[in-house]
Amino acid sequence: MSNENPASPTTARAAGPLDVERLIQELTLEEKASLTSGLDFWHTQPVDRVGAEVPAVMVTDGPHGLRKQSGSADHLGLANSVPATCFPTAAALGSTWNVELLERVGRALGRETRANDVAVLLGPGINIKRSPLCGRNFEYFSEDPVVSGDLGAALINGVQSQGVGTSLKHFAANNQETDRMRVSADVDERTLREIYLTGFERAVTKASPWTVMCSYNKINGTYASEDHWLLTEVLRDEWGYDGVVVSDWGAVSNRVPALAAGLDLEMPATGGRTDAEVVAAVRAGELGEAILDQAVRRHLTLLNRALPALAEPGTYDVAEHHALAREAAAEGAVLLRNEPVDGATVLPLDPTPAASIAVIGEFARTPRYQGAGSSQVQPTRLDDALTQINAITGSEVSFAAGFGITAEVSDADDAALREEAVALARDAGTVVLFLGLPASHESEGFDRDDMDLPANQIALLEAVSAVCARVVVVLANGSAVAIAPWQDRAAAILEGWLGGQAGGGAIADLLFGVRNPSGKLTETVPVRLEDNASYGNFPGELGHVRYGEGVLVGYRYYDAKRMDVAFPFGHGLSYTTFAYDDLSVAVSGEGTTASLTVDVTVTNTGDVAGAEVVQVYVGDPQSAVERPERELKAFGKVSLAPGGTRTLTFELDARDLSYWHPVLRRWVVEGGEFVVSVGASSRDLRGSATVTVVGEDVTLPLTPSSTLSEALAHPVAGAILRDAMAAGDDGSSAMAIDESMLAMAGDMPLRVIAAFDGMMFDQSQLEQLLAAADAG
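RESULT FIELD:
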């Protein structure tokens, strides 16, 4: 394929809207096929024929900043991007729990996308963090689908408010990088529905992304690009999605069945090869032309959405966007630990005298601010923490690199750097120690082997903490790292994630109390990697990965196992404190119309202004199926002045009480008691209320394979069986059965009982029983 960009990819930008239905009638079969694949790496195909003109448009990465290639595209589409604001990655944005902030970031991304003549920004990614080892976790928000879906929707709404599109990705069950282009994610439907599809459903129904990007992997043996159930039955028929489904770059195995499944656009270009396959399939009657027409219709509709903004690209304020990136990075950082030393917590630091502060760690001056792979952004500027700390203190603090971050650094070099750092720490009142994962440790394209920080950094921490009691660790990493083995050596730990181009300034603001930390974890930090639910089933083998943990993902698993964790889901400290009072839960409706209104009052009981993330969890202890002890169903972030108070109201609907029934294959509200809890994390619950909800009828249909116990529990068949058994107490009926025999026969299928001569009932009686049950 050609890697050269067309000279004028949006030549029709000034034209009016396309007449979609006329074009579908006018375009040739070959032209229609061409519109469902790329022109090159980043552009859709145009049609230049007079009377049937269709413009090409550009789409490009990335989720936390525009990555538009200038000039020729390389074969992986990774190099030579134009300068753009590098916002914090999704791991940091997710930890803000701030829907309004995410929408503001989205609007900024939309302005930059529009100003660069790009029609669709390829993000956000909202895949679930099934394992902390996934190399692309920095691009994803959470281990929880409610957080992922709602924050993804906010970002989408912000971007698309500027007249450019988004691409919600990677749909679906793309939770690892190992063998990602062909591995089969083997997962049951209930787990898919409740964990891995719910976030996409929330984002689609709340924000209507212009495009949805299908993933590389297979789902239960079928490539996502060819999965009719996924792309049409679920996405379109159930969720009502009307946009374009685009492939991840190179995710199409077979273009013709992919089109039939609901894939509208294959990217990137294939040099016309797969276009010819589509034409041949239509002419041979193997693919209905109406299917191709529908894909073209969606593509042309997408162009009509994009053309007005392409006609008026506009500009954006670079400094304003940098300030927003700093705000977002500060709000996404999580204060994990802040212990007292000599009677007072270590943070926030006093900027005077600055001479008492020593900054150690190469990451302080060489920031690790974004992930590696297709989302890499060329920042408009880049702040390092060391310079920003100097700016706040008004003087130059002492600094030592402490360790190397490149492969060229030898053990001897590290030892010398460590010795220099320890000498500096010995005379310091407080050490701010910057640790984290080098870029080579986590990236798109491969998964991590462990959760550990590099050994040279751990050795440095041990040496520094031995000579200084006031050690503040600042982390830079895209996914959870093992903290439990060393956390007692640090008085304070600030998780900065990959904070984008302004992350250095954000960290400085938090260290000195210019801003109050308000980030909360959207993924559990386990004590050990082996404690993670996916351990032993990640990343799979021989082309398959088994999702054996089912719905018990993340905190759902740790809570079910009553397992200690280093830091729980939802955890994050502040420089102030908050009290929760007056929890009330009101029930309305029943069954599919059931809803809960949850009210709780939150008060800032400390001395400084701060923001709290209020989390609402629901448990269903009486469920007929295994459900997590509690699941996040809503959240809200509230900012309060000292002494300030506010009552938050959350509305939960029937879906928030439901589970996916694996037999009925639909969402059901099972009647009984529900426990509603509010708190500051999944392990810091500040109040709970038990309410009773009237459920819907979830009676299972009786079949010959139903068990005797299921038949006895059936409202119709059970009464018939019990009457017949009672009539047989004198031994005159074959239905006679005592309790011990019932205990043994309870799990026997009805067809097996009927097949045994002289047992409770014969085949004819079974048919009568099933007919009566079916009739109701």
